[in-house]
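Q: What would this chain look like folded?
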Amino acid sequence: MPTIRPISDLRNHFAEIAKEVQGSKEPVFLTKNGVGSMVVMSMDAYEERLYESQVYDQLLEAEVQAAGAAQRLSHAEVMAAARARLKRAEEDQGA
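A: My prediction, written as structure tokens:
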């Protein structure tokens, strides 16, 4: 269940709200005149959600690319190609 508080609590009970978002890693929704105004969350929770969103976007992009590709590779083929690329890169750096 989300925590919903009036925006005036941000001024009057800042320490309490800060402790709540740090402890629970859940956002607190603030309202102004009964209407949603802003969300307060800890930096850790924000970064976790941002990371998850970026991963989701990358997976979605990969699915779109895969749908447009005619060739499918097995896991073993992908790993062999990756190892070969790494080996070439190491050889290029050593030369």
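Residues 43-67 form the longest helix (25 residues).
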